[in-house]
Please model this.
Amino acid sequence: MDKKITIESIEREAAVMRRHVIEMGYAAGGRGAHFGPALSSIEIVASLFFKVMNHNPLEPTMTERDRFIQSKGHACLSYYAALVETGYITKDQMYTFKGDGSFLSGHPSRNMRYGIEISSGSLGNGFAIAGGMAKAAKIKKEKHKVYCLVGDGECNEGIIWEAAMNGAKSKLDNLIAIVDRNGVQLAGKTKDIMDVDLEALWKAVGWEVLIVKEGNDTASILKALEKMKNSQSGKPHVIIANTTKGKGVSFMEDSISWHARPLNKEDYEQAVSELENA
Ligand SMILES: Cc1ncc(C[n+]2csc(CCOP(=O)(O)OP(=O)(O)O)c2C)c(N)n1
Model:
């Protein structure tokens, strides 16, 4: 993408992406959508797609593209919103989200034509696949990076640590994981379900760790991503980004009940009004 893009322009894209999340989720009607998990990850995904990653919507399968893997696949609306704004998906297609026959399903379904690298949604699996892709790139001596978005609740999955250990053993310094630490899972607060020291765990399995105190601040997350992209540590990298679940819509923020559900007309109108006046 255009490397002259500024923090302010990414913030503007992030605002548009938040609106797309609400539009797509509302279009899904009674089928509902994962609003909170998508809204917490907007600045991370926007920074990747608008600045950090080398990719081209006109050539979605080019070998040298950086890969984006959304392991927390239930948050697909932030991914789809980025694909709309970068030109992989049209606005008309966007409104088919979760519709019968649509390729925009409730969890990403591999579709290289539209920039969807893998099917994901079974927590942990995407991260393991990202590790395999990074290892394949090493074997083939390809220079691209693999960026993988993981949830903090998702870090409770055993497969995460199996793949993380392998990443360190294989010296996958082309792999950059970003943990969207919003503190809320499907049925409770992450600390109430499994209170673990994520920083210590990632370090223990041999990864380079960076904490971002405010992961919904574009300048902060962008700085961390650029730092890890250029790191010479020789280790795989993880950014643990503190975010707010449901960020940007007051009644969705930090809320367990907005993990996933349908959006009614009244709530839709309030969400749109808040985003328009932000
Ligand atoms: C293997 C597996 N178990 C359970 C689920 C159901 N599930 C979907 S989202 C979710 C919570 C994920 O929490 P977190 O990783 O913190 O992501 P967030 O929603 O906060 O972004 C769960 C348990 C799943 N998708 N896959």
Summary: Residues 7-276 form a domain with the Rossmann fold fold (CATH 3.40.50.970). The longest helix spans residues 7-27.
